[in-house]
Amino acid sequence: MKEIVVISGKGGTGKTSITAAFAYLENANAIIGDCDVDAADMHLLMKPDFKISEEFYSGELAIINQTKCIQCGKCKDICRFKAISFTNDKYVIKPIYCEGCGYCEKICSSEAIRMETQMIGHCYISTTKVNNQMVHASLGIGAENSGKLVAKVKKEANRIARQSNKEFLIIDGSPGIGCPVISSLSGANFVVLITEPSVAGIHDLKRVYEVVKKFKIKAGCIINKYDVNTEISQEIIDYLSSENIIHISNIPYNENFTKAMVNGKTIIEFDQNHLKKSLIESWEKIKKQ
Fold first, then answer.
1. What CATH topology corresponds to 59-119?
2. CATH 3.40.640.10: does it fit domain 2-47+128-288?
3. Can you give the residue ranges of every domain in the chain?
4. Total-model pTM
5. What percentage of the chain exceeds 90 in pLDDT?
6. Which of the four pLDDT bands, split at 50, 70 and 90, describes residue 94?
7. Helix, strand, or coil here: 138?
8. Three-state secondary structure of 71-109
């Protein structure tokens, strides 16, 4: 089983649309993992059935027992995250600010504060519209530990891929360079970098490839919307050559990408012309690597 992770240094490059196209092309021969848990949206294109759902618990939140609280105010004074306020004549926790450090619990002389593990999201195992299995997740608003949820998605997707003897595991990773990206890259055989010809695009491509290099994973790059700025596209191509990154393909700007998303379809279903041909050729080139 070969694990292919698709990432981008920034959002808006077309990463998920391209990953969904690859998933559609490979259909039942691949397991899909949507590791972009902070803003999961591949389900909009792949139409999973959400057959199996599991709550995900991680991180702690301080809870104040008002019957035990003597209102000394020590907890509010020591909370460096300003997560405790005095409201309506009682001390209360502001969950969005609480980092779960537990210091307030330790200094509470009346033992009125306890730490509780939080349910911060859900993990799903589904069958998609093209009959491949997809492991995906959703993270609660403002919830942290997305790297741990990504790790769970990856672990489940790997397990299913190996048990079902599939040839490929296709992962839609998170944009950026943070913990979710690092978790997405762990164990990958090949990384596909999606970029666009903009100042931010090339800057963030270089940043994310520095992360990929730490893992010593072979990488290739697709330049999406390459014809929007051919000068920067050439700069990207020169960078790929200097870093021995495989230049997979150039994909032109095309509003069909947006129209396909609006219609809840992959670009392979929606566009039967040049875009479909280009993505098929890109996927075949990736598989040969």
1. Alpha-Beta Plaits (3.30.70)
2. no
3. 2-47+128-288, 59-119
4. 0.88
5. 83
6. very high
7. strand
8. CCCHHHHHCCCCCEEEECCEEEECCCCCCCCCHHHHHCC
